Amino acid sequence: MTEDYAERYTLSFTTGGLLAREADVLVPLYLRSRDWTAVRRQTVAENPLQISTTSALTRITRELVQRLSVLTPGELEFFDQASPTERTHIMWLAVCHRYTFIAEFAEEVLRERFLTMNRTLDLEVFDRFIIGKGLWHPELDELAMSTRVKLRANLFRMMREAGFLTESGDMMPAILSPSVTRLLQAHHPSAVRFFPAAVSSEVST
Fold first, then answer.
1. Could you tell me the domains of the chain?
2. Which domain of life is it from (predicted)?
């Protein structure tokens, strides 16, 4: 029965990785105008991301604006002054807030395996996760295999770019800086659940 299913996942994260480098271009534009619509139009018109085709530029810009727009003004101001590692952590936070599917994977797989000392993560883990979620999300069962492969590849790319995963599939701890920890505490106290973070990085609620 349809009413028994959970709210459908948004599953548009098929390309681009974490997009931290691209965010480094768009965030200052937003901080000047405070208008994401204007930022999107300017980016497509002027191509500061230096993407080779108009279609790819439009797609990446739309995806990036959707991710960044879930962050608070304070988080965006922090991002603008942050270190490269801190920026990847903020972008991972944005991805988790934008995509419930990724947030649940981060909490139920990435963080859980880290806390239980199961520090490897291979493609089969993703496949089992998506099969399990398919019980409540029929949209996952409707995915073409090619789309499922793209989602998996891009999620693993994001985790590698965030520093959580090596090329060989070994998990790495997220060493959250004191500044990022304070930011989480101020805006999203429970968001540490999205990170494979050591106990010392936990944020009190």
1. 17-69 (no CATH), 84-201 (1.10.3540.10)
2. Bacteria
CA separation for the pair 141, 130 (Å, rounded): 9
pLDDT given at position 185: 85
Nearest to 129 by CA among 115, 147, 146, 148: 148
Q: What is the pLDDT of residue 51?
A: 95
* Maximum Cα interatomic distance, the chain, rounded to a whole number of Å: 49
pLDDT average per 10 residues of sequence, the chain (205 residues) = 72 94 97 97 97 95 96 94 97 97 97 91 94 94 94 97 94 94 86 80 41
Amino acid at 31: L
What is the model's pLDDT at position 130?
Answer: 95
| Residue closest to 47 by CA, chosen among 88, 33, 15, 56 | 56
Phi, psi angle pair for 83, to nearest 5°: -75, 165
Q: How far is CA 91 from CA 22, 95, 141, 172, in A?
A: 11, 6, 28, 17
Q: Are 28 and 80 in contact (CB under 8 A)?
A: yes
Q: How far apart are the first and last CA of the chain?
A: 37
List the structure tokens of 37. 């619509």
pTM of the model: 0.92
Whether 157 and 17 have beta carbons less than 8 Å apart is answered as yes
